[in-house]
Amino acid sequence: MMSNERFKNIIKKAFSTTAIGFSMGILFYSITFSLSDIYIKPVHIVKIWIAFFIIGILSVVRLMFGETNWCRSKPFYVKNLIFMPLYLLTALILVIDIVRDMGVSLDLWMIGIYIAIFVVTFTIRQLVEYFLEKAKTDKMNDALKEFQKEHSWDEE
Fold it and tell me: For the whole prediction, is pTM greater than 0.90?
């Protein structure tokens, strides 16, 4: 069973990451629409907020799933790969809904481009997360080796 403090930390971590994604999404959306000279409807911002709220909930579930014994015995990226289709589905539903709302027909190749952008972004994020995790592990291993060197005389 998970403690309340741990659950609060998971919620804070999930929603802070989601808030960064939301801000970047709004920025990307705004720049794209301003360059295309298209009016941003306020309902689109609300739809994006709802989608990111769903993504935040998915992130909480993903982080809680990461606390299970099964997931702890797997590489860190397994939980991300398991949840990636849910994130992609949420994003695709949002994009399709907004584009349809604008009266533009969405071709299959456009969806393919969006999926490709999503996969490239996801892969880059995985690589960054991998190197951050590796750096933490290397730092911990170095500290452990240093500790063992300092206390090796106790064993003798």
Answer: no
How many whole angstroms separate alpha carbon 64 and alpha carbon 71? 10
Q: Is the pLDDT of residue 77 over 70?
A: yes
Distance CA 54, CA 59 (A): 9
Round to whole Å and give the CA distance between 44 and 112.
22
Q: What is the DSSP letter of 75?
A: -
| CA pair distance 22, 28, nearest whole angstrom | 10
CA-CA distances (angstroms) from residue 107 to 55, 90, 96, 110, 121?
25, 18, 10, 5, 22
Cβ–Cβ < 8 Å for 155, 98: no
The predicted structure's pLDDT at residue 54: 93
Question: What is the rounded CA–CA span in Å between residue 35 and residue 5?
Answer: 45
DSSP 54-94: HHHHHHHHHHHHHTSHHHHTS-THHHHHHHHHHHHHHHHHH
Q: Could you give the 3-state DSSP secondary structure of residue 107?
A: coil
